[in-house]
Amino acid sequence: MKSSIIDVPRKHTQDDLFGIQVYQEALVEYVRLTDTPITIALQGEWGSGKTSLMNLLRYNLCDMDDAPYYPIWINTWQYSLMKTPQQTIISILEGIIQQIGELNPSKQNWENSKKKIGGLFKKMTSVGTKVAAGVAGIDASGIDELFSDDDGAGMSDIVQLKSEISKLIEGALVTNPAKRGFTFYIDDLDRIDPPVAVEILELLKNIFDIEKCVFILAIDYDVVIKGLRPKFGELTDANEREFRSFFDKIIQLPFSMPVASYNVDTFLVDALSKIEFFSPTELADNSLAETLSEITCFSVGTNPRSLKRLTNTLALISIINKKQFGADDASHEQNTKVLNYALVCLQIAYPYVYNQLCEEPDFKAWNEKIASKLKLRPLSDEEVERLNSTEEFDEEWEKVVFRMCQKETYLSNRVFSVSSLLNRIAEIINNDDKLGEIIES
User: Fold this and answer.
1) Using an 8 Å Cβ cutoff, are 263 and 274 in contact?
2) pTM (2 decimals)?
3) Ramachandran region, residue 73 (left: φ > 0; alpha: ψ -120 to 50; beta: rest)
4) Distance CA 156, CA 196 (A)
5) What does the alpha-carbon distance between residue 289 and residue 309 come to, in Å, rounded to a whole number?
6) Residue 218: closest CA among 240, 192, 181, 241
7) Quick count: other Cβ atoms within 10 Å of Cβ 18?
8) Mind listing the pLDDT tens digit for each residue in 272-288?
């Protein structure tokens, strides 16, 4: 038995439990066929598997035998720790260039480039945190300084930096005909301050717009929106096009993580087997896997990180039960374990509703008295009529659930799932007369 399912990105040696192989293969083929330069954004919420997919892309494009690209990997979160925004941007740029330079066969050329690039960095640092034109807040004299012809050769600082990077890339590729270019993996952009993430995006666009370069970024559009507020203000219908145009200018291929298509059944069977919450015989029943998957989708959803937290919680509960009741008593019948699974899902996903269930376990008896106790707002006649026409809210207790969910934005957005989960719990118990007694136990 394992006590936990660790939350680390998947490597190419691990099984594809979520069924994303087809997306991975399609992206690999796309990159192999694409013209350069190009920037690809892997979009998805935290824990949706962006880093895992990047690991797989790196292996197929860079690490396996006869792979066509050199890899450059930057974790922006690690580069940002204990640094100011200005230091973060320069540090990330240095990290990228350092990895390129180390692949250059001519150490002398690399040393010469380092000296030139180091001088340019000092200049950029003196200007301020913004190193690319058009970024919100940069002083006009700073832009002039970065793009001025100080050396008399008709080259601005940005152009000189881009030229030095191009030389390093060409130098690395010349000596290895098997390599067609570089793929840059920029991870965890959605974990740093959004305005800094936007600055990094602009930096990459202005400096690394170079042939034979493919950028693969882990960032969500929502982060870009937050990062652009200093420039465009709050997102409205009037300026939405400006936000989208900025994103489209930077990103040539947006790829949304296919979380809704993840094969949750396979992951759950594997994880629950490892923690021994269900027996191998029970997990061999496809109908059980389907039931667990349905309960999961109604509650914690299909985000891999959320699923791992769920199974870790169940593992701890199993250990507590064995300590408290002994191994024999901890081995409940399958239906009881499914009920426990559903209640843990409810607790993790909807703690407010779960807390009310702890107070009043017989949720089918929830009525106006409970609503008054919780100070829930009354429903209008129009709302009552609309709810009566839906299967999820045509009973009195379901209307109370609806009113509960109006207290939180997240619950309000998931109100149908909350009702469906509670109805599924009632189906599992299959005894309305003892519903509250069984849930309480």
Assistant:
1) no
2) 0.72
3) beta
4) 23
5) 18
6) 192
7) 21
8) 888 888 888 888 888 89
